[in-house]
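I have a small job for you when you get a moment. Would you make up a two-line entry for one protein for me to read? No commentary is needed, just the two lines. Write everything out right here, beneath this request.
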Amino acid sequence: MEIDAYKRQDKEHENHWWFEGKKDIIYSILKKNINKNNLKILDFGCGVGINTKMLSNFGDVTCFDQSPEAIKYLKKRFNNNNKIFIEDNLENCEKSFDLIIASEVLEHIENDEEEVKRLSKLLKPNGFFLATVPAYQFLFSIKDVKLHHKRRYNLLNFNKLTFPFFYKIKLSYFNFLLFLPIVLGIIYCKLFKIDFIDKVEKKPNKLLNYLFYKIFKFESIFLNKINYPFGISIIFFGKKNEKNFSKNQGM
């Protein structure tokens, strides 16, 4: 991402309805499926560490990001936390982790299939993988360009991407309840070529921020019971597929 994106997220993410709501959704999926607090966790492509402290409720967290700018923010925030470690090289980490989180990461990577394969190698047998990605290519906008996104996904192609390496436990759209107003806003900005990234990543006024957060958080109540038919984003949670993984070693 551009340096400005790290600065903006570091400044704005706390109490921002989108970042806090997504964090609640990730937490709810993990809480339902993992009843441990001693996991070895990789927060892959973690940026400024938006989800990292929440993940430390489940065990020790290794933060990894390729950007020196991100590493700077991570050290500033977590250097004195004895459950959070900062890493800029994963070459010696094969089969090291019980859980890998890749939240808003795979859309940045040119060869996403190769990256998913590489991440599966970092998991222990029966390890878990959770990813979130933006949905629907027709919503690709200047915001995606500014964030250096290569693509957006749908359930079909994301299922195809993860299937060789993971047993699917959960695959669903989310940010369902706010879908229509967000889509209309994006389409409007695309039509009139409006650069809107600063507006959406900065907190709105307190009332709107509170309302959006409550609506977004409300989704987490039902997400463990149902799959939403559409949404602004996709969430995947799965378990390492040792059998299929072995077959795909030569891919």
In short: Strands lie at 39-44, 59-64, 84-87, 97-103, 123-134, 166-174, 233-240.
